[in-house]
Amino acid sequence: MIQDSTSTTVVRASVNGEDEQFAVSSGETLMETLRGAGYYGVKNGCDEGVCGACNVILGDEGVTRSCLVPAASCDGAEVMTVEGLADDDGGLHPLQSAFLEHGAAQCSYCIPGVLLASYDLLQRNDEPTESEVADGLSGNICRCTGYVQQIEAVQAAADRLSGSDASSEGSG
Ligand code: FES
Ligand code: FES
Fold first, then answer.
1. Fewer CB near the terminus (10 Å): N or C of the chain?
2. Which of 84, 111, 135 is the last residue of a domain?
3. Is residue 78 located within the same domain as residue 39?
4. For all residues of the chain together, what is the average pLDDT?
5. CA 157 to CA 40: how far, in whole Å?
């Protein structure tokens, strides 16, 4: 981390596996930095740590509200945004496919944060119960869907990722 005389700090971090370098000002949040660099999947829903729309995966800390993280503290960090969920060819992650199939996204403003909270949950628990998914998503506010379809979608994605989804067998 390098600090210059105008209190701009240079932060180097890995974002979705790519090395990035950001000039961040004092008081700037990771959410602001990422959005300023074009990672628009990081949404500003409340700017005060309530809604989960700004979620990222922050190294070993897992899912994290980027509006609460000082950007200057992220030197050397590994960050994943929703843009990192799809594979290198742009193929949707099973979570993304399941959300589409289950009608779990309407206006979609909350969806990047919900997807990353779901991803984090499935990293820790590959077969979550309905109540465990509800718990895992409890920090994410959605004003559209009522959450039921989102919970169904996460469980469907878990089945797909574990290979127990009979409906996907033979579909290639
Ligand atoms: S914008 Fe960060 S929690 Fe709402
Ligand atoms: S889909 Fe609209 S806020 Fe969640």
1. C
2. 84
3. yes
4. 93
5. 24
